[in-house]
Design a protein that fits this description.
2 copies of one chain form a homodimer.
Chain A lengths: L1 H6 L11 H12 L5 E5 L7 E5 L5 E5 L1 H16 L7 E4 L5 E5 L19 E2 L2 E2 L3 H13 L4 E3 L17 H11 L5 E6 L17 H17 L5 E4 L16 H12 L5 E5 L19 H6 L10 E6 L14 H4 L5 E6 L15 H10 L7 E5 L15 H12 L5 H12 L4 H21 L37 E2 L16 H8 L9 H4 L2 E2 L10 H25 L6 H31 L12
């Protein structure tokens, strides 16, 4: 990421006064041999229209940020070695293209694998302005326009962003404004209680008044704040349930407070029983978001957005689309992705997400949602993403949020070209490798949609029963005969939360796509897959293949001409991935062989 | 513990000048109606002789600390409500009766369940002198005479005890001297390398010189320091292996440095491969101490003591005696116990250790060892042990180290009487409960000597496969048919490290005592126990019984007249133990039922 940013050749101490000024500045430094002029057309908003004039110069029309996005579109093309086109126009599919940072005020980053926070240290905002302008470019160059800087788990003193630290936050908002980036803050639903108000009940007048006053004060300092992000009644966070209110009550109260300023309340739907008894087979965690929210459809204010994780669990390698994304037609929805590789290799293992995102949009009609959000994978590491190749997820996420029809292969190739100048053959090798990396990771980890066989808390590395007797509602219940949870109508009934077409697609194990088989079904190890293999043999095969594929990836990685310092990091992390893949492969196979007693048909080693 | 200390009625600001002065002071406050005189008889050393004179007064003869131990013996009898005898004499079985504190310089305590360190805070010695004098009485009153104040894992800056903090350490040694307590320090084998010496090789002259000079400096400040405690080449600690030397080389080099001052090197034998590959079935961790040390028998200097954990693993609920304790006849040995309830309930669950210790001495000839050591269970909590009933382990350990023939029931009863004045019936109930508590804990945790089914790192609560695919060498390899590691001659051969008589006792699963069955043998679930039950049924039965017994204990606990503040702590921890016992019972039974497919013969609920 750093590599292609440096090609912009920008002086990071330069303070742009507006997106237009920034556009012209970056164009002049990045493409000094080409002339550009700009034309503000307010109606175009964030969209742009570019045409080549007779004199060879380019005219970029657009709203103020539209011009900026047009400029970066040209720069991306040019840096990728493509001919600049005669004309080019585009506008974003979603108006809010959000990055959620899980940064704590103490400078740590929850699920951060790229160093400490870019924004915080010692309980307060503390940042390098030059890096902020680099981050602004990172976001603007791929069209991201909302930056939530603090963790959805609001640990004290992060609350002070709305209070004592508001001045500092306003300075940061000023810094990002020319980049078309609006700030957002995660808030603590119980924050009024830090001010002698004995309740956080959303229907309590004192609470409502406190939020109105606070919103007024915040918006005086940051008039274009995108709004507040809220994680309520989830994993120990306070929320409306404490007071017998529902989440529409909670969200609408806050929405009322920010409405005068055009602000949004982004309300996360990550609510489930995180103190579940493992003995309780009635409760099925994937059903919880629907159970909590579906009946509230139509009750949310028009400046509330429900932010829904893409799957019904929590960013597992393979989950079906969250049914809530299909079922709330009268509510503003955002889909939440996770760039941070929490369950997907900690930015050690290669895991390019674009193919996964494409699969989501195969079932999700584009207009079911009005926004995309992604948990950031950025941190204070020199290269921003810890692993240089993890940057592809940041880049392609931006393109996806602009246009969910973005072709994964084209987006990945563009990123490679922007980042390194590889010969075409090497570029294609790397592109193919990146595009295959998710499936490879999937093969050597938990089988066929079952998820959760990771080390608890840390979420790196295999632990087949790490969550099996825990409180998190994530069980596989593997025994000597069978594995998985029956989520069909005859089981927990989760599948009934889907439209008929999807129920039909998944409800019959004979026709359910293999990769989702153990998400929806409990099956004996002797179950015959569509290709004739038994389930247990398929599990073994996938794991041996996953490790073999990783070995092959490591050969390719070593052969590619990455420059330093990237090369050392990439090669050493590949070694770690190889070790991890071997552990996963052997441990999962041993786990299932101990249970099933089945030998591998091909006589490969499965340890006792 | 606090309760009976307070009956001593001592002014903690009183600074005794000698053990004799302390003895007379404490006798005068504790037993004001009786007259005492003392008579130093150097030959008696730590022993004492007491006789009642014609005038009803008592004369206590002994070496300086012998007089002190005699005084406390009388006070214990009196506080326990017994007649003071006409005469009484005793001397300790072992000359070094050691308490090992795993306290870190930052004030944390490794495996501490009683609050922060009594000695350290903020990287330096920092203590309450009054509490130190209370601790001195705690130790002296049960005959303990060596206090190692810092963790065997020496984290910086604990090394400074030998350097910058030596003056403070000397003051602490002065404080403890009248209590007959000599300090000991855990040292970092690589400490010379903090001083521009490029190696810690024990055969390097510069290293030898550094330790000699350092020992000279330390002994100038603390002439009666008991010596140094060393954990070398273990779990990441540096040691002689780095330099191709053996542990006799390492220990003898240090022994030479402290020899002029009468100091000891206590060298821990807790050495094993803590990066084991779980696939490796050749390596069997319990064999490692023998493999490292047995061949060195006779090579250690006479002021070296090898400190050997009582079992070959690491303080599990049920382990056989470490074979090393039986096999090194030409070496000074100490047996290491652990009062801190690391694997035995974290001072939440009741676990009285005396019955376990008695079992150890059934196989260990008293004169095989010359010392006992125990990892401390003390901390800064008001009652010192977190759980008021955990104090029984500290108390009885002292009596055991003085006389390994101490009767467990008598020792436990004496502790109860010293601590609370219960009616005889309640006292007997509590005594029976405490004496049964270890077997109850054993029943609901890992079955029949298998150990290690705990949550990793934390070591509280069940996790049947938590260590199964990890690097620690602690595997059960349970599969659908069988469980356990074969450690007989036909298996790993561990059993061959024992004398013939013990080999015979354990080698045949048909005659091996049930409680050690899965320590030595890998057996099918269908194995018939001596009483006719199958192995799997025995596992189920033990777990259901363990929980039922805990329920019964909780009824008794609630019925007993504990005074506050003890009562609240005891009752609330009993609730936690009940929850823990239920989790263990259900999870272990479910784990084995998933594997074996066997139903409980009595139709009790085993969850799916």
């Amino acid at each position: 990421m750093k590599a292609w940013l440096s090609r912009l050749n920008a002086d990071l101490s330069f303070v742009p006064g507006s997106p237009e000024e920034l556009a012209l500045y970056d164009l002049s430094r990045a493409l000094p041999d080409v002339s550009f002029k700009t034309e503000i057309v307010q109606d175009l908003g964030e969209g742009y229209r570019i045409r080549r004039e007779a004199d060879g110069s380019f005219c970029i029309s657009g709203g103020p940020t539209g011009i900026l996005y047009g400029a970066y579109a040209l720069i991306r093309l040019a840096f990728a070695g493509e001919e600049l086109p005669e004309s080019l126009s585009s506008s974003p599919r979603y108006s809010l293209r959000m990055l959620n940072c899980w940064d704590n005020a103490d400078g740590s980053v929850e699920r951060g694998y790229s160093g400490r926070s870019l924004f915080f240290e010692n309980g307060r905002l503390q940042y390098d302005p030059g890096r902020m302008r680099e981050l602004g470019r990172l976001m603007a160059s791929v069209g991201l326009n909302v930056l939530c800087i603090n963790n959805v788990n609001v640990h004290f003193p992060a609350q002070l962003l709305l209070e004592d630290s508001l001045g500092d936050a306003a300075s940061l908002a000023d810094l990002f404004r020319p980049f078309g980036v609006r700030l957002m803050f995660s808030i603590d639903f119980s924050q009024p209680m830090l001010h002698q108000i004995p309740t956080a009940d959303p229907l309590d007048p004192a609470v409502q008044a406190w939020w109105k006053e606070t919103a007024a004060s915040v918006y005086r300092s940051i008039p274009d704040l995108a709004g507040f992000l809220v994680k309520a009644d989830s994993e120990g966070r306070p929320g409306p349930f404490t007071y017998g209110r529902n989440h529409a009550d909670g969200a609408n109260m806050l929405a009322e407070a920010v409405r005068p300023y055009g602000g949004f309340i982004v309300w996360r739907c990550f609510v489930y029983n995180c103190r579940q008894d493992w003995r309780d087979t009635k409760t099925d965690r994937p059903m919880s978001a629907w159970d909590h929210y579906a009946s509230l459809d139509g009750l949310f204010a028009d400046n509330v957005i429900l932010q829904i994780k893409h799957g019904p669990f929590d960013f597992q390698v393979r989950e079906p689309l969250s049914p809530l994304l299909l079922g709330m037609k009268k509510t503003n929805l955002a889909m939440e992705l996770q760039l941070a590789q929490e369950y997907t290799g900690h930015q050690i293992d290669l895991y390019t997400m674009m193919p996964m995102w494409q699969e989501l949009f195969e079932e999700l009609p584009e207009n079911n949602i009005m926004s995309l959000a992604a948990v950031s994978n950025l941190g204070r590491d020199g290269n921003y993403t810890g692993h240089p190749l993890a940057a592809v997820n940041f880049f392609t996420y931006g393109l996806l949020a602009w246009d969910p029809k973005t072709d994964p292969a084209a987006a990945v190739s563009q990123w490679i070209r922007l980042t390194w100048s590889f010969p075409r053959e090497e570029e294609q090798k790397l592109s193919a490798l990146l595009l295959s990396s998710r499936r490879i990771y999937e093969k050597y980890t938990a089988p066929l949609g079952i998820g959760w066989m990771v080390n608890p808390h840390d979420h790196y590395g295999p632990n087949p029963s790490g969550y099996e007797y825990d409180v998190w509602g994530t069980y596989h219940k593997a025994n000597r005969d069978a594995v998985g949870i029956d989520r069909t109508a005859g089981g927990t009934g989760f599948i009934l939360q889907y439209p008929d077409s999807l129920q039909k697609k998944y409800e019959d194990p004979e026709t359910c796509p293999d990769l989702y088989l153990l998400f929806y079904h409990r099956l004996p190890y002797t179950f015959r897959m569509k290709d004739g293999r038994t389930l247990i043999q398929r599990i073994y095969d996938d794991h041996f293949e996953g490790y073999a594929d990783t070995l092959a990836m490591s050969e390719i990685i070593r052969s590619l001409p990455f420059p330093e310092p990237d090369r050392s990091v990439i090669v050493s992390r590949m070694e770690m991935q190889l070790h991890n893949a071997k552990e996963w492969c052997d441990i999962i196979n041993t786990f299932f062989r101990r249970l099933s007693g089945a030998d591998d048909l091909h006589g490969r080693i499965i340890y006792d």
